[in-house]
Design brief:
Blueprint: E1 4-9, H1 20-28, E2 31-35, H2 40-43, E3 51-55, H3 66-78, E4 82-87, H4 97-107, E5 110-114, H5 119-126, E6 140-144, H6 158-162, E7 166-170, H7 176-185, E8 193-198, E9 206-211, H8 212-218, E10 227-231, H9 233-241, H10 252-258, E11 270-271
Parallel strand pairs: 1-4, 1-5, 2-3, 2-4, 3-11, 6-7
Antiparallel strand pairs: 7-10, 8-9, 8-10
Length: 278
């Protein structure tokens, strides 16, 4: 008897922001195949005995090829397992959920798509930054700072992105300076407020308040921790809400705050070559 794969959004990081549907599926799962950057605090809420398999990318480190993830999901389902494929944020927002759904459909595997709270708006909200604000920002663009040259598709139209009121950049740790430069070259004012968010919604959340020109010169340090970038006048509103100056001169503090290792994955987790039970 064939099993089923649930493509589940884990939310932005904080386990309290998991949806009720996601919680019920995790509690009933046989196997959870999760992204490597899923917060350890969330993984620790999964019942004992559920197999955990870590796949995906980890800030430029170990990477599981997407085709291998497809094969793993198909194999587990054909073995009759109730599988949760757990992805950060929402599975269809820079999560390759569409690719996995197509692969499952082609293989004749039953699957379900379970939306999650996207970090695209939840991360900024946790830093008190509204991505829209009456009279300030009526448009928002989500873009990724990391691109896969082998994935095909069109390059980012930075001129179009620069014209959007609020720009939210996923996976921005290593590319923050480059993104800032592209936005400025495309016409964005160098004094536009910007914020770098590290570990958004988690207890160790760090928010770095600056502007595009400072970010272009300084970057955001080299970090393997989940990092987002927010650009736009709404960042100034967030700075006002939290009583922070919106454009400090960070010097080495920026790199120091962003530097660090990702949260530890529980010992019961192994990667896609095998799985163990706690």
């Amino acid at each position: 008897m064939s099993g089923i794969v649930h493509l589940v959004g884990a939310g932005p990081g904080d386990p309290e922001l998991l949806t009720l549907r996601a919680r019920r599926l995790l509690d009933a799962a046989d196997v959870v195949v999760h992204d490597r950057l899923i917060a350890s605090a969330l993984l620790e809420t999964i019942p004992p005995g559920v197999r955990l398999v870590a796949v995906g990318k980890a800030g430029g480190g170990i990477s599981t090829p997407q085709e291998e993830i497809h094969e793993l999901l198909i194999r587990l389902a054909r073995d009759g397992a109730n599988v949760v494929r757990l992805k950060g944020g929402d599975p269809f927002v820079f999560g390759r959920g569409g690719e996995e759904a197509l692969a499952l459909r082609a293989a004749g595997i039953d699957f379900e798509i379970v939306p999650g709270v996207s970090a695209g708006f939840a991360g900024p909200a946790a830093a008190a930054i509204p991505v829209t604000h009456r009279g300030v920002a009526r448009s928002v663009a989500f873009v990724t700072g990391e691109t896969d040259p082998g994935a095909g598709g069109r390059p980012v139209d930075w001129a179009a992105i620069a014209a959007i009121d609020t720009v939210v950049v996923f996976m921005a740790g290593r590319s923050a300076a480059t993104v800032a430069d592209r936005l400025i070259v495309a016409g964005r004012d160098p004094s536009t407020p910007a914020a770098v968010l590290v570990d958004a919604t988690l207890p160790g959340q760090t928010v770095l308040w600056l502007d595009l020109e400072t970010l272009r010169r300084r970057g955001a340090g080299r970090t393997r921790r989940p990092t987002m970038l927010v650009v736009g006048d709404v960042v100034g509103i967030g700075a006002a809400i939290t009583a922070h100056a919106a454009a400090p001169e960070p010097d080495s503090d920026l790199a120091e705050a962003a530097r660090g290792e990702p949260p530890a994955i529980p010992a019961r987790t192994v990667d896609a070559v095998g799985a163990v039970a706690r």
